[in-house]
Amino acid sequence: MSKILGKEEIDEGVAKLAEQIRERAGDAPFALIGIRSRGDEVAERVKRALNAAGLEPKFGVLDISLYRDDFEHLHENPKLQGSEIDFPLEGARLILVDDVLFTGRTIRAALDALSDYGRPAKVELAVLIDRGHRELPIQPDFVGIELETARRDHVYVSLDATDGEDKIEIKEAQ
């Protein structure tokens, strides 16, 4: 059995993220950094929504392929796409953006990768989907969609620019 959320729910989740960030941002400068892959597309969508509201955050993309601790679970070698961060992180306020927060291990890897670029003043976390089941003490500051899932369920996110369509599929564990 599976459940599917579509473009409308994803758009609502992105709008919710943008509103939460806008409310908390105030006048202080900040940067959005999307985690490849799909976190960068979510971050780009959030940036567009913030731009429409008159905010102009800096924008970057972070590739964490070499920082992951689950190489043995990957079905292929990591595909390196490179990071695109063209501003100093030293002392900056960053909002790290990903598509799904599950165990917290991706975020741990992203924090390790960010440390190679400098020491930000603050790092906050925005996720399109929080599905629970953390293995590490990592919690999001901004959440677009909260999903109740079983630990062994699978959540698959497809986004238009990356996958050709917007949908979230939850496949329940057998």
UniProtKB/TrEMBL annotation:
Gene3D superfamilies per the UniProt record, alphabetical: 3.40.50.2020
Gene Ontology molecular function terms on file: uracil phosphoribosyltransferase activity
Reactions it catalyzes: UMP + diphosphate = 5-phospho-alpha-D-ribose 1-diphosphate + uracil
Key word Acetylation present: no
Record keywords: Glycosyltransferase, Transcription, Transcription regulation, Transferase
Domain Phosphoribosyltransferase: 8-157
InterPro entries: PRTase-like, PRTase_dom, PyrR, PyrR_bifunctional
Span(s) of short sequence motif PRPP-binding: 94-106
Family membership: Belongs to the purine/pyrimidine phosphoribosyltransferase family. PyrR subfamily.
PANTHER family tied to this protein: BIFUNCTIONAL PROTEIN PYRR (PTHR11608:SF0)
Function: Also displays a weak uracil phosphoribosyltransferase activity which is not physiologically significant.
Protein name in UniProt: Bifunctional protein PyrR
